[in-house]
Amino acid sequence: MAHFRRLPGPIADVWDWQHHGACRGRDSLQFFHPDGERGSSRGRRETAAKKVCGSCPVRAECAAHALTTREPYGVWGGFTEHERHRLLQIGWRDVVDRCGARVDVKRLEARLEPEPEFSAPAR
After folding, report:
1. At a CB cut-off of 8 Å and minimum separation 6, what does 45 contact?
2. What one-character-per-residue DSSP string does 43-57 give?
3. Region of 102 on the Ramachandran plot (φ > 0 left; ψ -120 to 50 alpha; else beta)
4. What is the C-alpha separation between 64 and 77, in angstroms, rounded?
5. What is the pTM of this model?
6. Which runs of consecutive H residues, i.e. helices, occur in 5-123?
């Protein structure tokens, strides 16, 4: 007799979150940089993409997917390529749920914030 608990779930269960993304139906160029894009052009595009992600109902799933698969390009779950690279370096697995399907986006954002500079007390 087969051990059904060991079988993977339907593929639709794994990818269904993508149907609910705020990015669905939008131009992918908003989320992925064209060749040679740099500087303020890239910053404006990433800011616009992150704004879409900010109101997305599946942002936590998208960010978990991008970090788990080490997605190399684009804005996923409101995180740029550079931000995801930093999260992979400093750690992110402690903010993922038991199933590995969602991350705590607020805690990840807090990790990316610059640490306050130390200032000597005033005399």
Report:
1. 29, 30, 33, 37
2. HHHHHHHHHHHHT-T
3. beta
4. 8
5. 0.81
6. 11-15, 39-54, 59-68, 81-90, 105-112
What was the pLDDT predicted at 11? Answer: 65
Enter the tokens of residue 50.
């992150």
Place of tokens 């593929």: 11
Name the residue among 12, 33, 105, 38 with its Cα closest to residue 67: 105
One-letter amino acid of 5? R
Under 8 Å CB-to-CB from 30, ≥6 apart: which residues? Answer: 23, 45, 48, 49, 52
Q: Is 76 helix (H, G, I), strand (E, B) or coil?
A: strand
pLDDT in tens, the chain (123 residues): 444 565 455 666 667 889 999 999 999 999 999 888 889 999 999 999 999 999 999 999 999 999 998 999 999 999 999 999 999 999 999 999 888 889 999 999 999 988 766 665 666
Distance CA 68, CA 78 (A): 15
36 vs 54: CA distance, rounded Å: 26
